[in-house]
Amino acid sequence: MGAVLFLPMKISPRLLIIAPHSSYRIAPYLQAAESLGVDVTIASAGEHSLISVINKGLHINFAEPEQALAGIIKAAEKTPFAGILGTDDMSVALAANAAKALGLTHNPPEAALLARRKDTARTCLQKNNVLVPAHRRIELAEPITSQLAALEYPCVLKPLAMSGSRGVIRVDDLESAQHAIARIITILREVEEPEEAAAVLAETFIAGYEVAYEGLLSNGELNTLALFDKPDPLNGPYFEESYYISPSRLSDDVQKEITDTVAAACQAYGLRQGPVHAELRIDANNKAWVMEIAARTIGGECARLVELATGQKLEKLVLADLLNLPLPSIKFKGGAGVLMIPIPRAGILRRIEGITAARSVKGIEEVVISVRDGHELVPLPEGSSYLGFIYAITNSAAEAESALREAHRHLNIVTAPLFKIAGAPS
Questions:
Q1: CATH number attached to the domain at 108-128+208-330
Q2: What integer is the mean pLDDT of 379-393?
Q3: β-pairing, 347-353 with 412-416?
């Protein structure tokens, strides 16, 4: 009888993903991990989640970061992790602290925390000669009117740590600023972090063309994944994003200015590893002003555009870079775009007409409606969601934009007024 040959068992790397249990980023990261043969544990507050991978994962309390960190370290002692990833603004600092404690690839925790806070981030960039708007904090515990009277108008008021343009309002005079502050204070009632609820950031309005940048940091070196044009003017009073178009139609010199500015901002923060999502404005002199630098990926359907620029899904690129797994890159030669379907007015959604016609437009790849009939629609600045997404793939960026605009014209959003019962909680 011949000898039995035992082949060594291939051990899959184990990844910890830290995310809010309701995060829409969890699903694409799980799909990416499965395609790479990576085992995943989800760390969230979803102890009672109906989603099994969250329910069976590691349960932590984001409001108790030290306790959450201890729980992660204890779990790693039983079965070590090869990498730790924070998916959202609220989880990247905890992920950095956990990875540092376990000797894994990580951003400095202070850098990850800095990228979350708009006030301290602006101050840091200004000290390092990166273009950011002139800014100051409006302290809500102090007399507000005198602080607003000292501002130069027009300016933009915004929460210290919210994303998706929520609570961001342009104001042109003292009266509009007072109304805006009252609205933002109402929004801030949801914020649990006392420091983030204690002030509002006021900054000079920068006129110009807006872009979104997606990149990956590897040992401090920034690699560009995609640059998106935002062809609609974003002049306020609210800043609801709509069209993202790729590839960018800006000149090579302007694109280099954007990349150099993002790299300088990351260096100023101290970011060295992982995804970077940036929003910038290009002024009349082709100078790039930083609106936002986040130590995470772009979200939603926009992430699908990165796949066209690289040949790989964005989440797959992030995981492969974190775990040192090789991936080929395939350049896309056409054009693509996504429209985040804006909410036209507040009310109850009755129906959306014209979806079939929108899908039939040449170049339209998909129309995704995210809300159901009967859903309460809340536009910006109080709202934080979209009706859905329209996705286009064409031969050029110009054709992608044209297809999206035509498809959008076919949609008719039918709403009914929302009547609040007197005395009922809002």
A1: 3.30.470.20
A2: 89
A3: antiparallel
Q: Do domains 134-204 and 333-426 have the same CATH topology?
A: no
Mean pLDDT score, 76-92: 92
Band of residue 90 on the pLDDT scale cut at 50, 70, 90? confident
Architecture of domain 333-426: 2-Layer Sandwich (3.30)
Q: What is the mean pLDDT of residues 8-33?
A: 83
pLDDT (average), residues 358-363: 98
